[in-house]
Amino acid sequence: METKLCIYICNSLVPEVNHLLHNGNYPDVSVKSFPAICAGGALTDELILDMVAHNIDQFSKIIVIVSACRGNKKTIQSNHNKIEILHLEQCFELTFNLPTIYHFIQQGNYLVSNGWLRNYQQHIREWGFDKKTAKTFFGESMKQILLLDTELPEDYRPNLEALSEYMGLPYDILPIGTSHVQKYIEGIIFKWRSNNEREALNEQIANSTRESADYSLIFYHLQNLIEFTDEVVIINEILKLSDLLFAPEQIVYQQILNLTATKLHYLNPNEKHINFNAANSLELEINYANEHIGVLGINGIKFPEYIPKYQSMADIICQMGGLAISNARKYSELEKEKLKVVDSEIRFKAIMKQSPSVIEMYDLDGLQRSVNQAYEELWGFSANNTVNQFNILQSEEVKRTGLLDYVL
Question: Using a CB cutoff of 8 Å and minimum separation of 24, what contacts does 256-260 make?
Answer without folding.
Answer: 256/292, 256/293, 256/294, 256/295, 259/292
